[in-house]
Structures are given as structure tokens and as C-alpha cells.
Amino acid sequence: MPEQCRMPEFGRTARRKQIERDEGTETTMDLQSEFNRWCEKVTDPILAAELAAMKAAGDETAIEDAFFQELEFGTGGLRGVLGAGTNRMNIYTVGKATQGIADYIKNNVGADGTVAICFDSRINSRLFAETAASVLAANGIKSHLYSRLEPTPALSFATRYLGCAIGINVTASHNPSAYNGYKVYGPDGCQITDVIADAITAAIEQVDVFESVRTMDFHAAIESGLVRYINEEVLDAYLDAVYEQSLEPADEAGSLRLVYTPLNGTGLECVNRILERINIRDVYIVGEQAYPDGNFPTCPYPNPEIREALERGIALCEQVQPDLLLATDPDADRVGIAVKDGNDYQLLTGNETGALLFDYICRMRLALGKMPANPVAVTTIVSTSIVDPIAAEYGVEVKRVLTGFKYIGGIQAKLEEADELDRFIFGFEESYGYLAGSHARDKDAIVASMLICQMARFYRKEGKNLYQAMQDLYKKHGFHHNRTLSFTFEGAAGVQRMADIMDTLRVEGMDEVAGMSVTETLDYQQGVGDLPRANVLEYVLSDGCKVVVRPSGTEPKMKVYLFTTGTSEAEARATGDKLADALQATFQ
Fold first, then answer.
1. Would you call 173 a catalytic residue per the annotation?
2. 121, 134, 143, 173: which one is catalytic?
3. I want to staple 309 with a disulfide (CB 3.0 to 4.6 A). Which of 89, 102, 244, 299 is the partner?
4. Domain limits, CATH 3.40.120.10, in the chain
5. CATH 3.30.310.50: does it fit domain 479-587?
6. Which secondary-structure segment (H or E) carries 325?
7. Is the pTM above the cut of 0.85?
């Protein structure tokens, strides 16, 4: 093990303040000094009380976790736990990041550069959005702010539609309620590139959180015209663009009974409106999860890929017996589904829903004469391999990119530059993110919800639900089993532990896993093909299996992706069980 372990690349150029006591590169005294400065300078009463409580309790662990680094800024913007400190989401860290963005715009775009802003249902989301707008206004930069919470894809759309230089979305996606975040988009509506992230990071590093941030009263900014609310025309145009992706002839539409939960997030308005347009009206909303609530009282982890978040929806399903349960995450960029299988409801994985949508989109485009010449679909290096035989069946080129929807958006941008954007038919990642169309450059649970419902209606006419349709795909193309193991590492010690694991894997390597030999090791940090460098390790195993390891870019987690195949579902799953058991000890 090297004496100094590299930090994992959560944000590509993020500046860390890692406390390395043995090396003395960042002393406890420095941390204490910054803590004392915050105690002196913070005027927000809630944050000031939190700091005072830390000081009175002498809670060194809490102080270290809150101040051991500055909250990282990268291509995904900011994300962290709410609270006081440099490593927390609060009005001061949001203000500092926004001042850096303002400086970037003034230096690289010019005085005419504008910003689109959106926010979700999380605690302080509106406050952070208004804080960002106020800082921009104080710098003479106009912003367009949604007057109410709206989905992430609506922000991606608005950034392009309004011709903005930057988009800001206050959200922490599917993280627990203790988190909030701040995503940043480029003028193309895609999360910012490494180049822009580097430039903004450099600008942020020149900003002192208390001395350099310009701000003004939000209401004064509204009155001055420097902050303008986005009018209804923009959201209407977004929903029109979503509807254009419909692949179901109107005269063939049949009935569908649906249970839907927005998980106390942003999805209710837009999902309801698009369902009305495709004539799905037999919809039951999960009452406890219908309206915005950043505390997420019925599902502490509002992630539509886990059963706990869908339990209230499943309980309603038992009463009304729908064809489909649909759930969107708090910022409505991801969607999960469940259908009845025997006496219980089966949750489909992100890979399975992605494969079903890919097959359905190809099938319907061909049937309707809407398949472009040389069609392209885009997915990631950690998404299911079943897309390859599906693509071969329909003559679609598959491009694989790094994890993160910005890379899928990057392929869209390249196609657009070549005047070939019409070739793009679908993009998805295993983490329940899907996009059809070019109206947005991020995953879009609204367009995905529409297509999933149309797909469910299509199979309903054949006497199948979506679980049964997926089993047919497996029988046709082979059983491709995917599993993601997540290991949580909180705080300063957790960051170091993840770095240690990645360093150990690189130094010591792996020769075999669960009795299967490693035939090839790919280190994406050293470069693989034409993909950007990334802190990812891939192990190709015998018997057509694969393991991919990476630190999460948005959560304090190490993620391990398992890929197995078999002649039956039981065989593929059994191999996955062996791999999972063998790898557990490595990441504890």
C-alpha cells in the first residue's frame, strides 16, 4: 500500500482539504481556524446555532466531517449533506459556487450570458435557487427561474430553449433527505464538460466564502428585472417535445390502469399532463407520496430502484390491481416500475427497463416507418450486455460511454455537430435513467414514463405484462444477469477508505474471483479506447462474466457491478451470487 493514497476522482478537478495527520499536510489547527472563522462570520441563525452546538459539545468528529474538505465542484456540480461547514450544502457554499459561475460567465461568455434555474422538493431547494439567483443578479447577470419546482429534464430543456449560457438545478436526485445538491448545465442542456468544470472550479477557488461573494435581496433582484420567472410557454414547449416521442398510433391506444408515485418530488404535474395526452386516465396516485416534501416521510431513501421506496405504491396496487406501478425520483429524471408476478409485485431493474424500452422503440420505429438510417443507441460501460443482441437484430449501432448521462449527451452533441442528430434513437444507463429524443440532454423520467406506459399497453394487448415481456427477451437473447453492490463510506475516514481500496486493487490486482480467472484488467484511469480517463477498474472473467469497480460520483459509496450470463435465469443468478459473496470482504 503506498504511503500516500490517491483520492478517488469524484469531481474531476475538485479541490480537497484532506486532513492527513501523519503527513501533516493539513493540520488540525488549520481546520480549527476555519471552524472558528465560520463561528464568527455566519449570520444565518440556523447555521449559527448548529456551529455553536458543535463548539459547546466539543464534537471533534462532527467538526472534522463538516470542515475536512471544501464541498467538491465537478462536472456534476455540488452535492452534500445539509448543514454548516465547508463540506456541507448551505447558503454560503452555494453562494461561493455561484460567484465562481458568475465570474466564469463574465470572463468567458460576456455580459449577455444568462442562466436558467430550477429546483426540486428538497429541504432548502427554493432557498438555494433564490440564493443563486441573487448572487447572479448582484453580478449583473440575468437569470430565468422556474416559479415552482419542476423536473430536471425541464431545466435541461429550458437552458437550450432560452439560449442560456448556464443552467443550475438545485437537487440531490434520489439521495436521502439529509442531502441537497447543485447541478450545472452548459448551453447545450447537458451537464457541463470537464473543460467548463475546470474553468468554473478555477474561478471558485479564487472566491472567499465570506469576503468575495456578491449578493442582493432576492425581491430587489426580481424588481430590477435581473431575475425573471420562466413563463408557462417554456413548460408547455417541453411537454410538446416529450409528446413528439410518442410511438403509439392514436387509433390503437387501449386502456391501461396505472398506479403512480412521484415520491414526494417534482414529477406529479408533468407526468399527469403527459398521461392525459396519451389518453391514460385510469390513474391512481399514492396519496402519502403525491405532494412535495423534502423530508420524504414514507421512504427515507426516495430511490425508485429499491423496494422500500415503492412499498406504499405496492400496497395501493394490492387494492386496485393495476397493470403497472410507476415511480419517479424526486427530481423526476429517473423512473422505476413494478408489475404483478404471481402473488407479489416484481421490480424491474434499470437494465431490464432499458432493454425493454430499447426493443420497443426499435420495433415501433420500424413499424411506423420512423427508423432513421444508421440508427444509434447509447449506453454505458456498466449497463447490460443484452443490448448488443437486441441492437444486432434491428441493425442499430451501440456506443458505450462512461457512467454519467453527460457522456450520453456528449454523443448527442457529436451527432448534432455532424448534422446527424436524427440518428439518435435512445440512451440509457443502468441507474434507471432513460432518454428518447433530443429535446433534453439528460435523463428524462417524463418521456420515459410516457413510453413505458405505451409499451405496457402494447404488451397488454398480447396478454402480457412487462415482467413477462422481459422474460421473453431473455429467452430470445440469453439470460444476462446484472447486479450492483453498494458499499457506503461516510465522512473523512470513508473518503480515505475508498481511496485505499482503489489503490490496493491497482497495486495488488486480482487473478481470480469466485474461482473464475481474470482474463483481462482494464484501468480506465490509464485510458481505455477514446473514453475519458476515469477512476474505474474493469475485470473481464472467464465464462463471459465481468466485474466493474468505481467510487460513486454523487454519493459516499463504492459501487461494484457484476455481469453474468447463463442458459437459464437460475444459472445466471447463481453465478452472480458466487461473485457477490466472494467480493463482499474486499469492500467492507
1. yes
2. 173
3. 299
4. 28-230, 232-465
5. yes
6. strand 324-328
7. yes
